[in-house]
């Protein structure tokens, strides 16, 4: 097995050597266009400063958008809570009105019941005598 592995490694090395690219031959030329080195460096510096400014501006925009989204979420939650509070208030008012109606109805029935009992319980003449009581009719 060692000799097979050694043979495969040798074949791989030979294959790499055969496929290796040859030397590159280029005609020497002046690079960088028509600008001098100082102009190119100044241009690079300006681009770097501009990219920093653009990154800062982008970051500020991101923070502003995030803040606006949070504000919108807060306003949405406040609106939901306000709606719940209004519904609760309406429900309380309805319950209060029902309670008041029941109280008035109960009071009306009780008053009528009392008046009916008074009318049925005492004859007319007795009620007049009680109304016209003088000091001589007291038991004291």
What does this structure look like?
The model has no long low-confidence stretch (mean pLDDT 86). The chain is mainly α. Helix content is 79%, strand content 0%. It has helices spanning 2-19, 37-121, 124-131. It has a domain at 32-119. It is elongated. InterPro entries: EPSTI1. Residues 1-21 have a biased composition (Basic and acidic residues). It comes from Circaetus pectoralis (black-chested snake-eagle). Keywords: Coiled coil. Residues 62-105 form a coiled coil.
- Mean pLDDT rating: 86
What class do helices, strands and sheet pairing give? mainly alpha
**Total strands:** 0
- Counted by DSSP, the helix tally is 3
- Report low-confidence residues grouped into runs of 5 or more: none
Task: Give the termini distance in whole angstroms.
Answer: 139 Å
Helix content: over 70%
Which strand-content bin applies to the residues? under 5%
| Principal-axis shape | elongated
Elements, N to C (H/E):
HHH
Q: What composes the largest sheet? A: none
Give Rg in angstroms. 52 Å
What oligomeric state is this? Answer: single chain
């Amino acid at each position: 097995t060692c000799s097979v592995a050694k043979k495969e490694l040798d074949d791989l090395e030979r294959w790499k050597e055969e496929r290796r690219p040859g030397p590159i031959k280029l005609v020497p030329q002046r690079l960088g266009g028509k600008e001098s080195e100082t102009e190119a460096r100044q241009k690079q510096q300006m681009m770097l400063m501009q990219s920093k400014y653009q990154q800062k501006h982008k970051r500020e925009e991101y923070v502003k958008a995030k803040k606006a989204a949070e504000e919108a979420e807060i306003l949405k939650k406040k609106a939901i809570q306000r709606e719940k509070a209004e519904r609760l208030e309406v429900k309380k008012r309805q319950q209060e009105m029902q309670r008041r109606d029941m109280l008035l109805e109960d009071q009306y029935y009780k008053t009528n019941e009392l008046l009916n009992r008074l009318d049925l319980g005492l004859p007319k003449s007795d009620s007049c005598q009680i109304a016209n009581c003088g000091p001589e009719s007291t038991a004291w």
